[in-house]
Amino acid sequence: MVDKVRFLSVCGSGVVTSHMVANKIVDLLSEQGYDADPDECNPSELEGYLMRSQYDFIAYSSPIGPHGDVPAFSAMGLITGMGDDEFVAEVIKCLKEQGK
Predict the structure, then answer these.
(1) Is 53 exposed, middle or buried (0-12, 13-18, 19+ CB in 10 A)?
(2) How many CA atoms lie within 13 A of 38 on its CB side?
(3) Is this model's pTM higher than 0.70 or not?
(4) Dihedral angle computed from the Cα positions of residues 13, 16, 22 and 28, in that order, rounded to the nearest 10 degrees
(5) Percent of the chain clearing pLDDT 70 (strictly above)
(6) 3-class secondary-structure state, position 28
(7) CA 90 to CA 24: how far, in whole Å?
């Protein structure tokens, strides 16, 4: 059985970097047996997205403001290519704590 995961990818403009990060996370989580469904936004849109949907975690590449009780992880390592394993380990730990 494949676990469904929803996450929010946040970057400065909510376009290019968030899309690149989201795609990379989908691929990385797929390798771990998860079916990941991303949304993408910029920091000023974050609150609205969190009010409209529920997310398992947030991946951000630019500073973000309050995000309630949704776990948030820096995705800068995914951009540089020197932090994929650490990012995935943190996210998997978080998802397992959520029962996924």
Answers:
(1) exposed
(2) 23
(3) yes
(4) -140
(5) 98
(6) helix
(7) 15
User: Which residues are bridge partners to 57 per DSSP?
Assistant: 7
Q: Which of 10-24, 36-50, 52-66, 82-96 has the lowest mean pLDDT?
A: 10-24
- d(CA 20, CA 93) in angstroms, rounded, equals 23
> Which distant-in-sequence residues (6+ apart) come within 8 Å of 51 by Cβ?
none
Write down the residue that tokens 């989201």 correspond to: 22
Tokens standing for 59?
Answer: 């991946």
Cβ atoms 55, 38 nearer than 8 A: no
Angle of the 84-97 helix axis to the 16-31 helix axis, nearest 10: 70
